[in-house]
């Protein structure tokens, strides 16, 4: 893994600022694909902006028959949604 700056913003605005200030930043949602990619040195971002702390992006709702999941909810909140 190459070194990078890690950011964990609490708002979308802060995330956008961190990303735009980075020379070669990337977003991380759950990290399931990104972290192995970083570990294998297949990516070399200057900054990683972790979206996991942004409450505006969390949550799951059912729209008709269709479940709508926001960006990065981890597995447990998904499993707690009885309707899903
Ligand atoms: C071991 C393994 C098993 C897997 N098994 C499955 C499986 O069974 N079924 C399946 O469907 N998939 C599977 N995948 C694929 C994985 O679920 C997908 O790649 C998924 O997108 C990972 O989501 P994440 O939130 O962890 O993304 P991350 O790893 O955080 O990000 C993936 C990519 O999306 C970019 N990104 C993240 N958030 C945003 C955003 N908001 N805007 C723009 N770009 C963004 C990142 O920069 C990165 O390039 C597997 C992957 C691995 C490594």
Q: What is the N-to-C order of secondary-structure elements (H for helix, E for strand)? A: EHEHEEEH
Total individual domains: 1
Strand arrangement, major sheet: 1-3-2
Give the integer mean of the pLDDT values: 85
Estimated helix fraction = 25-40%
By CATH, the topology is: Uridine Diphospho-n-acetylenolpyruvylglucosamine Reductase, domain 2
Corresponding CATH superfamily: Uridine Diphospho-n-acetylenolpyruvylglucosamine Reductase, domain 2
Strand content: 15-25%
Radius of gyration: 15 Å
Task: Provide a quick synopsis of the model.
By secondary structure, the chain is α/β, with parallel strands linked by helices. It has helices spanning 12-21, 34-39, 75-80; strands at 5-7, 25-28, 47-50, 60-63, 66-69.
């Amino acid at each position: 893994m190459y070194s990078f700056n890690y950011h964990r913003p609490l708002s979308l605005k802060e995330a956008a600022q961190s990303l735009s200030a980075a020379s070669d930043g990337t977003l991380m949602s759950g990290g399931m694909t990104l972290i192995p990619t970083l570990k294998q040195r297949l990516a070399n971002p200057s900054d990683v902006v972790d979206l996991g702390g942004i409450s505006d992006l969390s949550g799951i709702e059912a729209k008709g028959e269709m479940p709508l999941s926001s960006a990065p909810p981890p597995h447990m909140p998904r499993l707690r949604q009885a309707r899903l």
